[in-house]
Amino acid sequence: MKTAERIRVHVADVYCSTLDKILRVTLSIGVIQSESQDKSVTSLLSRVDSALYEAKHAGRDQVYCIQPQSNTAI
C-alpha cells in the first residue's frame, strides 16, 4: 500500500505539455492480496480490477485496497 501511494505521488508531479495547454497526470491504483481461492490469473485480475474501479469511483487519483476476504491469504 505504501509503495502504491509513493508511486501515485510521484506521478502527480508529472505534467504533459500539448500545443495549447499543460496536462496534469493522475493515477488510480487498485491493490489486493493474493488469496487461496485465486485459482486462476483471471480471478486474480477480476479482483484487482474491482479494486481499481473502487479507486476511480471514490474520486480518482488515489490508491484503494481491498482487504483480504479470509485468513488464508498467500
Strand and helix map with partners:
Layout: H1 2-12, E1 15-17, E2 22-24, E3 29-31, H2 41-57, E4 63-65
Parallel strand pairs: 3-4
Antiparallel strand pairs: 1-2
What would you note in describing this structure?
It is a single chain. With 74 residues, the protein is α+β, with helices and mostly antiparallel strands. The protein has one domain. The chain is built from two helices and four strands; from the N terminus they run αβββαβ. The strands form two sheets. It has a two-stranded antiparallel sheet with strand order 1-2.
Question: Main traits of this protein?
Answer:
74 residues; alpha+beta; 2 helices; 4 strands
- DSSP strand count: 4
Structural class: alpha+beta
Strand order of the largest sheet: 1-2
The main β sheet shows up as: 2 strands, antiparallel
As for the number of domains, it is 1
What is the strand content?
A: 15-25%
> Percent range for helical residues?
25-40%
3D shape: elongated
Quick rundown:
The protein is an alpha+beta fold and 74 residues long. It contains two helices and four strands.
